[in-house]
Specification:
The complex is a heterodimer of chains A (248) and B (80).
Chain A (H helix, E strand, L loop, with lengths): L1 E6 L6 H11 L3 E6 L10 E4 L21 H9 L4 E4 L1 H8 L6 E3 L7 E9 L15 E8 L3 E3 L2 H9 L3 E6 L18 E5 L5 E4 L17 H14 L17
Chain B lengths: L1 E8 L6 H12 L11 E7 L5 H16 L5 E8 L1
Antiparallel strand pairs in B: 1-2, 1-3
The chains are: A alpha/beta (248), B alpha+beta (80).
């Protein structure tokens, strides 16, 4: 199976995502330059974290017009799994592939810390190997992760079970104290109507090895691998590269 | 021709930067100042035959790029 990691000028978690897919999961992975209009036959697309185009104008506002975006739109429309992490999530929002927008964190501070999120739904390609209600300890690193949408849009997201991750406390309770940025309804991640596009602010790719403090994020990569392998859409792990252990 | 585009968060959207500035002003003793909303200001040099055409063009790029309609609204002024 082949992961594609989109690289915008200013992406800085592209190598982390590549590492998780290639070195930890033992899958093929390839960088996709934002000016290249082709997805090079990848099976899953990751829009990584960072500061595409320096966050000028608004986070993700310039990146959404990249030459690669029409190909990502077509890939998603055909049901291909697309994951937006942090800045990648912001790009998906600006592109209109997911609803809502990001506001400045309510305390105006850049939050760089491990937080807890609760897996709310498991019928997406990126959460199917997780358990509903499972609590994940994953880092966040953002200044604009305060998810906002019009009240009727939030109602629609809730009614259609498209809130995939919610910020919670260490016990897995969804509380105000567990919400690092002021996101409405503690929303940390959502999915598209067809459920194949997922965006979240926390960084699962930075939490795939115990030696990095948490391996809780690995389940998202394992999920998409299982989802696509089961579909028979891909051939599975590269034979010469056995998947590495979950870390130290 | 020149267009000025002012982008601000919608009234229904909380503006933590504006609130922080207002709090600072109040702590300085400027009690005559109420709410503060922070926004962005763009100056566009336009190739347009009329003020009307300039306004249409400025509004188009504001809709597509300069403002995010989910959270922001904008106002256009034309210098002819």
């Amino acid at each position: 199976m082949k992961f594609g990691v989109v690289v915008f000028p200013g992406s800085n978690c592209d190598h982390d995502a590549y590492h998780a897919a290639h070195d930890i999961l033992g899958q093929d992975a390839e960088y996709l330059w934002h000016k290249d209009p082709s997805l090079k036959g990848v099976d899953v697309v990751i829009l990584p974290g960072g500061f595409a185009h320096g966050d000028y104008l608004r986070t993700g506002a310039i990146a959404r017009f990249s030459p690669i975006m029409p190909a990502i739109r077509d890939f998603a429309r055909a049901g291909g799994p697309v994951l937006g992490i942090c800045n990648g999530f912001q790009v998906l929002l600006e592109a209109g592939l997911l609803p809502g927008a990001m506001l400045r964190n309510r305390d105006l501070k850049f939050h760089c810390e491990h937080v807890y999120v609760r897996v709310e739904q498991t019928d997406t390609p990126f959460t199917q190997s997780a358990a509903r209600g499972q609590r994940l300890r994953i880092p966040v690193a953002h200044g604009e992760g305060n998810y906002y949408a019009e009240p009727e849009v939030v109602r629609e997201l809730e009614a259609s079970r498209r809130v995939i991750f919610r910020y919670c406390d260490a016990r897995g309770e969804v509380t105000e104290a567990g919400n690092p940025n002021g996101s409405v309804n503690n929303i940390a991640g959502i999915c598209s109507e067809a459920r194949n596009i997922v965006g979240l602010m926390p960084h699962p790719e930075r939490a795939c090895e115990a030696s990095l403090g948490s391996a809780d994020g690995l389940v998202m990569f394992e999920s998409v691998l299982a989802a696509l392998t089961r579909e028979g859409a891909v051939s599975g792990a590269h034979p010469e590269r056995a998947p590495a252990s979950r870390g130290a | 021709m020149k267009a000025r585009v002012f982008v601000t968060l919608k009234k229904s959207v909380f503006d933590p930067q504006g609130k922080t500035i207002a709090d600072a002003l109040h702590s300085m003793g400027y009690n005559g100042i109420g709410d503060v909303r922070q926004g962005k200001f763009f100056e566009l040099e336009l190739d347009a035959a009329s003020a009307e055409q300039a306004r249409t063009l400025a509004a188009e790029v504001a809709d597509k790029v300069l403002a995010n309609p989910v959270i922001e609204s904008y106002r256009v002024e034309i210098d002819s």
